[in-house]
Design brief:
The complex is a heterodimer of chains A (492) and B (336). With 492 residues, chain A is of the alpha/beta class. Helices cover 33% and strands 27% of the residues of chain A. Chain A folds into 2 domains: 235 residues, Rossmann fold (3-Layer(aba) Sandwich); 234 residues, P-loop containing nucleotide triphosphate hydrolases (Rossmann fold, 3-Layer(aba) Sandwich). The model of chain A has no long low-confidence stretch (mean pLDDT 88). The chains are: A alpha/beta (492), B mainly alpha (336).
Chain lengths: 492, 336
């Protein structure tokens, strides 16, 4: 073997009560490469990373780092050994400055006192090295999500890291921010750092990675140079079956104009007008911060409209509260499904019936039998993988949680559904199911308005796409004729 | 990806029952322990007697009525520190009006409840519409209630003439019995209130919305629930129940002092937690709180019986509270 492996995970097995999360996984990672780690939700990616970072201890197997067998008892030991992890959720001390955050847990000392000057100087060096424009004295809470993510990366590498693990760092970034991050990641590779990159977005994996390891159901399927793979074969290896079409768009039952917005102004939104027909999938594209979510909120009565009109089924409406919009047949599958979409402590059943509890109430009393029956029916229809409908949603995977959110609004029988980033952080299998649901919804004559940062998804699933930029409508494209380039040209 | 190890259905159900009704199970254990202790120490049963249990239930009832409001607020993720002092304020005002100003029973009651509702509205508006943390808002009203109570009574107990027709017209609610002098009326009231509340919480839309708001205010909002109104409503209900609890306490004691209702707000929280209502909101049953109140009262009744110093009892109360929370956290941790 001529290859220079910095890290070898050998025969790693990790069992939790009742489930084998990792089953005899062996992966070798070459020094100075970007190594992709892909697999569906629950394939064992996170568990593997947690084993590597010393959070979980494996039941069997060993880790060889730089030629030495290591057993990490806790995350601190792993970090000292040069393994840094950038987690999916940003974990920074928001009230502190950029420099302070970069030295969290690793404070520079001089004469037994904190060396503020030295830390700021070193922080500025790191920022300059990466060719970035970030004020190291700025308070982290004042930064954009993308910059926070970069601070997170800088914190991780400010540790003489040999290995940097990035767990879905792109989930919240727009395309342009992504480019900056890619540039940083490649630069780190040039500096000799080995990067393990986890992502659901396969485009990124192809763009960025040198090698890819595929996990499925806790098993290592294969590790290959990216050049030996194409998109389809990678997806097939991840899901273990033929996937068919990625975007199975089917036309809806198109009817009359059902929603019409005229010259709407609200906060950052300036003079927005558009019409949507019943049975359409209407996409809203744009960068994060373009005002897409704000537009949905304004239409749905969550934020107060300053001027302009909204017509639903030809009638002028003015919703004072979101609940008025719900009564009128509108619904929202919000961006943050964990916080806004579901009550995590409630069961699948109770989340499903929450918006339209009236359907299971007779004589003022919730009918348990009826509620159980309908909840089972909707969970079956949406293929919610579950122990029972009494399971609290917090124990479900992201994809299944999203299916419960959709079930909730189908149960409400909303006619016009806003979907805000409906497939963020969801694996390919669950994504395909959500697309099929979108088809079903529009085929029954209902309407979908889909906000998404994933352009292929918009191009694949929408009838028309509206492009927004900094609160303005930049144009409208027929999805059949649109392309990523055409959208990009409008939104920058 | 959580598949649970197969356990038999029956043992699972028993486990779930014990978890949901920890306070009831605890209560049964207490009864067994103290009746055995009584038998071994005194050679006879002084604990498990009708007389002693009448006392325990009577003492539990007033606390339980106030605690019902508190536990509903805990369900929605709030709490109210003013409840105990509101008990004091409303009964001071009521007694003052009846004894010193010669008001009749009905107008005095109306004023008492008006005050209870006003304090609830003030708390509710501050917390849910203005956004003052519940801790601060209700701490403020706690002091205001206590201060006004002291001003009215000058911190001197106000006794009713227990032989007067006025007192007799309402004393039954605190010290009356049904069924041949065995069943305290206020205990029946407590039961009715709790069973009603339990029904509303588990079987109606309002109840389901309470749990949703307690589980996640944001998710509840995005499901079209009027979160602010629910919070306001629970504060008003808390005020009403505190007033009613104060009225029953006044009727039972036959006198009003500024110490009436002292620490009720905290005892109510302790009882709720023992009763399985989660501090984080969104979990538990209000009926558990009733057993929690009886548990707490029984515990101290038993402690007194076996001769534990009252000062030591406070220490034990603290231990019981912390223990209940620790048990709750540990049992939740095992599950996930």
């Amino acid at each position: 073997m001529s290859k220079d492996y910095i890290l070898s995970l050998r025969n790693i097995t990790k069992e939790f009560p009742g489930v084998k999360a990792l089953d005899d996984v062996t992966i070798n990672i070459e020094r100075g490469t970007i190594h992709g780690l892909v697999g569906e939700n629950g394939a064992g990616k996170s568990t593997l990373i947690k084993v590597l970072a010393g959070i979980h201890r494996p039941n069997a197997g060993e880790i060889e780092l730089d030629g030495k067998i290591r057993h990490f008892a806790n995350p601190i030991e792993a970090r000292r050994a040069g393994i840094s992890v950038v987690h999916q959720e940003i974990k920074l001390a928001e009230p502190l400055s950029v420099a302070e955050n970069m030295f969290l847990g690793n404070v520079l000392m001089k004469n037994n006192l904190v060396d503020w000057k030295g830390m700021r100087k070193r922080a500025r060096e790191i920022v300059a090295d990466l060719g970035l424009d970030i004020d190291v004295n700025a308070q982290v809470s004042s930064l954009t999500v993308a910059k926070k993510q970069i601070v997170e990366i800088m914190h991780a590498i400010n540790n003489n890291s040999q290995i940097l693990v990035m767990d879905e760092p792109s989930a919240v970034l727009t395309n342009r921010e992504l480019e900056v991050m890619f540039r940083i990641v490649r630069q780190l590779r040039e500096q000799g750092i080995t990067i393990i990159y986890i992502s659901h977005r396969l485009d990124e994996v192809f763009d960025l990675c040198d090698n890819v390891s595929i996990l499925r159901d806790g098993c290592h399927i294969d590790t290959l140079p990216i050049g030996d793979l194409d998109r389809e074969s990678l997806i097939n290896m991840m899901v273990g079956r033929e996937m068919g079409q990625e975007y199975p768009k089917e036309p809806g039952k198109i009817g009359d104009t059902i929603l019409s917005v005229k010259n709407l102004n609200c906060g950052m939104l300036k003079d927005i007008s558009f019409d949507v027909k019943a049975g359409e999938v209407f996409g809203i594209s744009g960068l994060v911060g373009a005002g897409r979510t704000e537009l949905a909120r304004a239409i749905l009565g969550i934020d107060k409209i300053e001027s302009g009109e909204v017509y639903v089924r030809g009638k002028k409406v003015k919703y004072r509260y979101f609940r008025d919009a719900i009564k009128d047949g509108l619904g929202l599958i919000p961006e943050d499904r964990k916080l806004q979409g579901l009550v995590q402590t409630m069961s699948i059943k109770r989340n499903t019936t929450l918006v339209n509890l009236a359907r299971v109430i007779k004589g003022g009393v919730i009918r348990k039998g009826l509620e159980n029956k309908l909840a089972e029916e909707f969970s079956d229809k949406l293929h919610v993988v579950r122990p029972t409908i009494e399971t609290e949603v917090q124990y479900l995977s992201g994809g299944n949680q999203q299916k419960v959110v959709i079930a909730k609004w189908l149960f409400q029988e909303s006619e016009i559904l806003f979907l805000d980033e409906p497939t963020r952080g969801i694996d390919v299998g669950a994504k395909a199911e959500i697309y099929r649901l979108i088809n079903e919804i529009v085929q029954s004559g209902r309407t979908i308005i889909m906000i998404s940062s994933e352009m292929p998804e918009l191009l694949g699933m929408c009838d028309r796409i509206m492009v927004m930029h900094e609160g303005h409508k930049m144009g409208e494209l027929d999805a059949a004729e649109a392309s990523q380039e055409a959208i990009m040209a409008l939104c920058t | 990806m959580t598949t649970k190890a197969p356990t038999s259905n029956a043992s699972k159900q028993i486990k779930a029952f014990i978890k949901n009704w920890m306070s009831l199970v605890g209560l049964i254990i207490l009864i067994v322990v103290f009746s055995t202790l009584s038998q071994t120490i005194y050679g006879q049963q002084t604990f498990l007697t009708i007389k002693n249990w009448k006392t325990i239930l009577l003492q539990s009832a007033t606390l339980a009525i106030v605690a019902l409001g508190q536990s509903i607020m805990l369900l929605t993720g709030n709490f109210d520190l003013s409840l105990g002092r509101l008990v004091c304020l409303t009964s001071c005002v009521g007694a003052g009006l009846m004894i010193n100003s010669g008001w009749g029973l009905l107008p005095a009651i109306l004023v008492m409840f008006a005050i209870g509702i006003i304090v609830g509205v003030v708390n509710g508006i501050m917390v849910s519409y203005i956004g003052v943390p519940a801790m601060i808002a209700t701490l403020g009203t706690q002091y205001i209630c206590f201060g006004v109570g002291k001003l009215i009574t000058q911190a001197v107990p106000v006794p009713f003439d227990t032989k007067s027709a006025l007192y007799k017209s309402f004393s039954w609610i605190g010290r009356g019995y049904w069924l041949n002098n065995t069943l305290p009326i206020c205990v029946v009231i407590m039961l009715v209130l709790y069973i009603g509340a339990q029904f509303i919480c588990t079987k109606t839309k309002i109840g389901r919305n309470l749990y949703a708001v307690g589980g996640s205010r944001e998710a509840a909002f995005f499901s079209g629930i009027n979160v602010k109104r629910i919070h306001l409503g629970t504060f008003i209900l808390g005020g009403i129940l505190a007033t009613f609890g104060g009225f029953v306490l006044m009727a039972r004691l036959g006198s009003v002092a500024v110490t009436n209702g002292q620490n009720y707000e905290f005892d109510a929280v302790i009882s709720s937690i023992i009763g399985g209502v989660s501090l984080a909101g969104g979990k538990g049953y209000v009926l558990g709180t009733m057993f929690g109140c009886i548990f707490l009262t029984t515990l101290f009744n038993g402690f007194s019986m076996v001769g534990i110093d009252p000062f030591v009892q406070d220490v034990l109360k603290g231990i019981v509270l912390v223990l209940a929370v620790v048990l709750d956290i540990l049992s939740n941790r095992k599950k996930s």
